[in-house]
Structures are given as structure tokens and as C-alpha cells.
Amino acid sequence: MAAKEIKQTAKLYCFRALHFAKHLLTAFNTKGEGIHSPYLFYWVRYYMYDHNRYYIWQHIEQQRQVLLNNHHSLSVTDFGTGANRPSERTISSIASTSLQSKKYAQLLFRLVQYVGGNHTPSPKKHTPLNIIELGTNLGITTAYLAAAHSLNHITTFEGSQSLIDVAQSVWKNLNLNNISVVQGNIDLTLHTSLHSPIDIAYIDANHTYEALIAYFNMLLPYTSRKSVFVIDDIHSTPDMQKAWNEIKNHNKVTTTMDLYQIGLVFFDTDYLHKHYRLLL
User: pLDDT tens, 34-55?
Assistant: First the structure.
């Protein structure tokens, strides 16, 4: 590695360490106390910190382990790098560096359940959700989104066909049949594939300021008051943090929750315009 690359890497690690320490010092974990909206209070108190385990989680994590132990090489095209040329990577290396962690993937599962209707002491009938995922990767997070309820439909976007092939084998092993895939450069495929209101959007694709802001603006016309956006790696680079701060201050955004690894964006005009830092 060249001296310039070493310096850039060290600078990035310092950036992440500094902002993680800041998050630990400024975030609070009061199980929802201090959150004024009853809807958001209930989400934090009874879902975000829920420690119950669901039977499907074990099966999904078994699939993650299979991927971690698979040393077969794939030719992966990463449109997010700008190179648009395939590179050779093993499935195990992709699984170890690129998959969403178990903790946050299971949080997404609980979020899907909550938005679908189980958010009162007497849960109502589940409302089918339209869920968008940008960045399928090997399909583990997609599996958590899809497994939360079979009535939901997940449309996931991925540039590399080789990753899609692996992801589809994961979903087949889990008997998940409520997932559709859009293959290609997300910059080109997203705006032509959106037709219906979005209930949940999970954004984990090209991690640059320009791409994140573009995706946010493309998805925004399809939101409703109850829509939730989940954005991954909001503090991973100065560019991503800049985009996160811009999204927080967008005039259609009412409330955000910063969990350091991910950010949750809410649009309901009944909520106070507040930004919460929380520990998961």
C-alpha cells in the first residue's frame, strides 16, 4: 500500500473513532423516555430494544455462516466505485466485510413488523408493506426484511448479477417468495422502477454524498406520512455524514434517529422536528 493510501486510511479510521466517541458521549438510552410522539415512543420502548428472538433468525444466521465458509470466487461488478469493471472476490470475503451485522439486520426485521401494524398493546391486522432495498449484496439483510411477514413485498436493487445469484440461493433455502430483484446500475434503474408508495426504504448502496442524496431525492416523491427511510453507514466517511446532515435538515423530514451505524428518517408532520441520538 502506498504511503498516500496509508495516510488516507489512517485519517478515515481517526474520523470514525472520533465520531463514534462523540456518539457514545451524546447519545442516550432511556428506553423511549424523552421521545414525545407516542408512535415513536412505542417503537423505541417495545421494539428497538426488544430482546425476543424469532425462529427464522436462526435459519438466516445459518445462511450467513454458509456464506462466511464459502471460498468460491465471484466476478463482481461494483457500479458504486465508478470503475464498472468486474473484480474477483471470494464469497467469504464479501460476507465478512459487506454484510449488515446481525444486530442491525434484526432491528430492521422488528421495524418491518412495527410499521406493518404491530405497534399497539392490541396489535391490529398486519398491513402489507412495499419495501425498497438499495444494495442487495448477498441477500442476508433482504432475508430479514422479507421474513418479517410474508404479505410484504420487497424490491431489492443490485448491480452485480453474480451477487444476485448467490442471494437468490439464500432466499430459496429460506423459502422466501416475496422478493423481486432489479439488476443493473441503481443510478439508472431506480427512477424507472418506482411506481407505488414506499413504506420502508433501506439504503445501503453507493456510499458517496452524491449517490445518497440522489437516491433520497428519487425515493422522496413516493413517501407518505408513515414512510420510514433507513440509511446505512451514516458516519462511515465525511461525505456520508455530510449527506446525513443534509437529509436531517430537509424540509420534508420531521424526525430522525441516529444509531451511529444507521439513521432512521421519519416524515409524519404530527411529529416534533427533533433529531435523536440513541444507543442500540
Answer: 787 888 988 998 899 888 889 9
